[in-house]
């Protein structure tokens, strides 16, 4: 079934952000200590997620959005809720990560050469709370994304409503 696709910028941002989230997740163990290359890597991947997600959300408001694939009311509502939750955690997880880093007095360099010194007074207890919140938000993001991917595959191959093709480049 042919459906209108998402525009190329939405497509590019969707898959680039998905890859960066995967990258931030697998490098998360490297962000320990008072900073350094591992922290720069994990933090840069995460901050790229934050920045590109902001652009994605802005663009979603500006560009025409294709009409949703027809589906039952409860399913449409669940999809909408899941997308809102994804957008919220895509911003919240990295923001809490940077706050946790700053609150413990560590610093990082975005991409290894743009220093982001901490503007906060070090506070170990607050930093631990923020770190816990960062891990919670990050795990929620990854679990939501897995459920979201499972739902997309269910639409494509069980419901056969062409949903996945909306997010894939046109085949020649
Ligand atoms: C989508 C973005 C992100 C994801 C999915 C993510 C994921 C995670 C996860 C799962 C952990 C827990 C690792 C462990 O088991 O110890 C973690 C820890 C951490 N993350 Fe992130 N993170 C993201 C963005 C960021 C950003 C932007 C920063 C900082 C600029 C950051 C800084 C940290 C720090 C400092 C820790 C604690 C490391 C430690 O002391 O154990 N994260 N992150
Ligand atoms: C970290 C990974 C991912 C994140 C954060 C993510 C996030 C999102 C978000 C927020 C939307 C909502 C678009 C809108 O505003 O309407 C979306 C749409 C979509 N995603 Fe993902 N996604 C991820 C991975 C995947 C994967 C692995 C698949 C496929 C298996 C997938 C398939 C889709 C499809 C088909 C749509 C369009 C739905 C529609 O047109 O109604 N996504 N994604």
UniProtKB/TrEMBL annotation:
Q: Do the record's keywords include Membrane?
A: yes
- Membrane topology type, per the record? Multi-pass membrane protein
Q: Which residues form the Cytochrome b561 bacterial/Ni-hydrogenase domain?
A: 5-169
Asked whether the keyword Manganese is assigned, the reply is: no
TM stretches of this protein: 41-59, 80-103, 136-159
Q: Which InterPro entries does the entry mention?
A: Cyt_b561_bac/Ni-Hgenase, Cytochrome_b561_oxidase, Di-haem_cyt_TM
Q: What is this protein called?
A: Cytochrome b/b6 domain-containing protein
Query: What is the organism field in this record?
Result: Sediminicoccus rosea
The uppermost taxa in this organism's lineage are: Bacteria, Pseudomonadati, Pseudomonadota, Alphaproteobacteria, Acetobacterales
């Amino acid at each position: 079934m042919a459906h209108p696709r998402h525009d190329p910028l939405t497509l590019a941002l969707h898959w680039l952000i998905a890859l960066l989230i995967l990258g931030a997740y697998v490098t998360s163990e490297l962000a320990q200590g008072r900073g350094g290359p591992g922290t720069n890597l994990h933090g840069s991947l995460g901050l790229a997620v934050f920045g590109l997600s902001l652009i994605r959300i802005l663009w979603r408001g500006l560009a025409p959005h294709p009409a949703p694939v027809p589906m039952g009311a409860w399913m449409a509502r669940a999809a909408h809720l899941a997308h809102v939750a994804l957008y919220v955690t895509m911003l919240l997880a990295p923001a809490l990560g940077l706050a946790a880093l700053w609150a413990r007095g560590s610093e990082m360099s975005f991409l290894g050469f743009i220093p982001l010194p901490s503007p906060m007074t070090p506070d170990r207890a607050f930093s631990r709370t923020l770190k816990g919140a960062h891990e919670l938000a990050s795990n929620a993001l990854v679990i939501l994304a897995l459920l979201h991917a499972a739902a997309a595959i269910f639409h494509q191959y069980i419901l056969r409503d062409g949903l996945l093709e909306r997010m894939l480049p046109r085949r020649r």
